[in-house]
Amino acid sequence: MWILSCLSLALKDMSSLSFLLDIVREFLGTALFLLMGLSSTTVLPAAFNTQDSISHNAEPSTSYSISNLSLLQATQDCHKDPLQVALAFAAALVVVCVCMGAVQLNPALTLALALGLRLNPWRAMVFVAAQLLGALAACAILMGIVPTASQGQLGLNEVVPGVLLYQAVSMEMAVTFQLVFCGLAVSRPSSTTSPSLSLGALAISVMLGNLTAIGYTGCGMNPARSFGPAMVKHNFHNHWVYWVGPCAGAVLAWLSHDVLLWSRWSSVGDWINKLRELVLTVPQKHTDPEHIAGLEQET
């Protein structure tokens, strides 16, 4: 009977216009965030600057082969600047949050919000699906607008040779922990941090995570960010690292923030009772006031 009541309320909530708008915001927000962020990993190599000069000073057939060989070699040797990638993702977060409001963009963060009972479980599952679809859309657009020779792996996350898998998982867990912990901290109801400062803290957290982990795992920190390139490139080698690490980091951040440092429940039974109340209540607002960051701008 309890399960039927939950399903009934879930279907009622999912059919509401406010929930549909939340789904659209998560999809568009994630797509825009990853489109801008991942584009920084597909910078054109310097060979493009010399392609025209080569083609004008050589025979047509020769210039084509020379320029393309030079371009492919330069693309293979081109290493993206970690600072450039980190700044791109941080700036993308700011732009998306200002435009879309309180969006999550990250399945790991959504998991922590659901565990912290700030988000209905069924909403969390649908939001994660929207985030993954948004990641696919971003990568599909990038494949269409970026020249093939400079696409590379479209920001595909790969464990760097020499880094053991347990080290890669630990690195992903660490950088995701600091990001999710920051998100939970600035969205805490008792927090006096202004929305603009909260957004700045999250942007710095994203940049810090990228600068820390790029040299070891490429920096996932967001399962959706790892899923999109892996899907379009059909490369899931060690992909589990970019789910296990971030999700473990999110759970650890939730335990540290909501259970240890700012305890919100007196016991496990209290948490379970609050969970039952949550799943048996249809949200009245399209945006939870404790979503990532109170990122909505004051009007």
From TrEMBL:
Pfam families: MIP (PF00230). The chain crosses the membrane at residues 30-48, 85-105, 125-147, 159-186, 198-219, 240-257. Keywords: Membrane, Transmembrane, Transmembrane helix, Transport. Gene3D superfamilies: Glycerol uptake facilitator protein. It is found in: Membrane. It is a multi-pass membrane protein. One of its GO terms (cellular component) is membrane. InterPro entries: Aquaporin-like (IPR023271), Aquaporin_transptr (IPR034294), MIP (IPR000425), MIP_CS (IPR022357). Coiled coil: none annotated. Belongs to the MIP/aquaporin (TC 1.A.8) family. This is Uncharacterized protein.
